[in-house]
Amino acid sequence: MGDVCEKMKSDFSKGSVAGNIMSLALPMTLAQLVNVLYNVVDRIYIGRMPENATLAMTGLGVCFPIITMVIAFANLFGMGGAPLCTIARGRGDQQEAERIMGNSFILLVISGIILTVLGLLLKEPLLFAFGASKDTFPFADQYITIYLCGSVFVMISLGMNSFINSQGFGGVGMTTVVCGAVANIILDPIFIFALNMGIQGAALATVLSQFLSALWVLRFLTGKKAILRLKKTCFRLRLKRVWDITALGMTGFTMSITNCAVQIICNSTLQIYGGDLYVGVMTVINSIREVISMPVSGVTNSAQPVLGFNYGAGKYKRVRSGIKFMSIVCIAYTTVVWAILYVFPEFFIHIFNQDAELTLAAVPAIHVYYFGFFTMSLQFAGQSVYVALGKSKQAVFFSLFRKAIIVIPLTLLLPQMFSLGTTGVFLAEPISNFIGGGACFITMLATVWRKLKETPTPSSEHTPAVSGTDNASA
Predict the structure, then answer these.
(1) Nearest to 330 by CA among 441, 197, 411
(2) Tens of pLDDT, residues 317-372
């Protein structure tokens, strides 16, 4: 009886669309908040070290591109497989859904091992290329060496948790990150201060916390409560399935990799025009962004299984309702956050660093970087619709368009124009949000939204487009 109740609970074709999204969004947003604590808590504690706090935090900021690379591969196979699972389950194909999940798991483990080996071999030239100086390199090296040893745990906990959430178990998905984050909060001060391990203690606490999260994910997905279970019989890789997972996961992967490229360009450019101080400012800005973007990620990520399930079931009216609700909530939230950031920037800066010189430089940088912040939600909403409906080509294009085609060139060019210097680096972000976010959302309305007005034919109800095969909306 319990299994039947869980399956009814995760049948997103029933009940209020907004209610279904929020039933996932509330625990998922809390999970996102707790997940942010993995790295944010490290920065908060590191920023309060008795010696070399600002240099250590800047060194951690130089590690962000490598950490983002690990997350990119977790997104590639986790976010690639989970929507396909949802669509397959919406069609009633339980076996294929489990095979997709099993293949995703193997891909996550293999890529995690490869990233660990390559990262340890290439860390020194990478860190200097990513904006490290002779003063910040020792701190960056100490942190990333330990972090890379736990890459497989990060891959499993982050990538496979998508399969828990996509089945409708938002509370369980939240617990995945809660157990790890609570461990991180407890272990950080012990390792950093009590055992005097400094930045190495922060890295060790993070790795152990991710290990606990990975254990929890595997325990649930192999247990009786899961609708889709992780089975050894589903581990055998099939080329077509791997291709579909990878193709749809390219959206999250491309977003993360382009984020990585932007971080590299920003740090290296800021190192040229402002030195370690402004690399530290960007570290604080990125930390603030992780926190304030979390509710938007929670809502858009929780909307994906609801939109995908109803799309697979041919209930287009409910898909339109979900898109409308998601977009309004995200735009309203980011508008309010923009106003708060503009008025109280020092409050957010001091969460991560108390240095007077850094604060003085960070306030005007925040005003520039977050200008028109609400347009960022247009990118999130548009991307989420494309991913949820299995339209990978469009999602990948707009990921590349905003970051690779707009942000990176502007980051390189603007500092040289009108003597903008470091201000030019921060100005690239709002310009890209207006152009890239607007283009993504408007194109989604003109293509996907318009097509969802049509009544699906009986055949289309059981064969929704996946992996970007809907050429009509390309």
Answers:
(1) 441
(2) 888 998 999 999 999 999 999 999 999 999 999 999 888 999 999 999 999 999 99
Amino acid at 73: F
Q: What is the pLDDT of residue 310?
A: 86
State the burial class of residue 145 (Cβ atoms within 10 Å of its Cβ: 0-12, 13-18, 19+): middle
CA–CA distances in Å: residue 130 to residues 126, 206, 212, 286, 443: 6, 22, 30, 15, 34
Helices (H), 274-315: 276-312
Please tell me the predicted confidence (pLDDT) of residue 15: 74
**Distances 309 to 77, 119, 191 between C-alpha atoms, Å:** 19, 38, 44
Q: Are 380 and 292 in contact (CB under 8 A)?
A: no
**Cβ neighbours of residue 114 under 8 Å, at least 6 residues apart?**
none
CA distance 251 to 79: 8
How far apart (Å, rounded) are the C-alpha atoms in residues 196 and 89?
50
Task: Tell me if 191 sits within 8 A of 205, measured CB to CB.
Answer: yes
Cα(372)–Cα(286) distance, rounded to whole angstroms?
17
Closest CA to 289 of 345, 241, 359, 248: 345
| End-to-end Cα, the chain, rounded Å | 44
Residue 387 · residue 251 · CB < 8 Å: yes
Report residue 13: phi and psi, to 5°. -85, -5
Distance CA 30, CA 174 (A): 7
Q: What share of the chain is helix, strand, coil (3-state, %, to 5)?
A: 85, 0, 15
Q: What is the pLDDT of residues 143-170, one digit of tens each?
A: 999 999 999 999 999 899 989 888 888 7
Q: What is the pLDDT of residue 360?
A: 95
149 in Cβ contact with 200 (< 8 Å): no
Per-residue model confidence (pLDDT) at position 410? 96
CA dihedral 354, 359, 365, 368 (to 10 degrees): 90
CA distance 155 to 173: 15
Q: Which residue has the tokens 């920037």?
A: 345
DSSP summary character for residue 472: G
What is the DSSP code (8-state) at residue 274? T
**DSSP assignment of 408-468, as one string?**
HHHHHHGGGSTT-THHHHHHHHHHHIIIIIHHHHHHHIIIIIHHTTSPPPHHHHH----TT
Which class for 218: exposed (0-12), middle (13-18), buried (19 or more C-beta within 10 A)? middle
Angle at CA of residue 228, ends 240 and 321, nearest 5°:
85
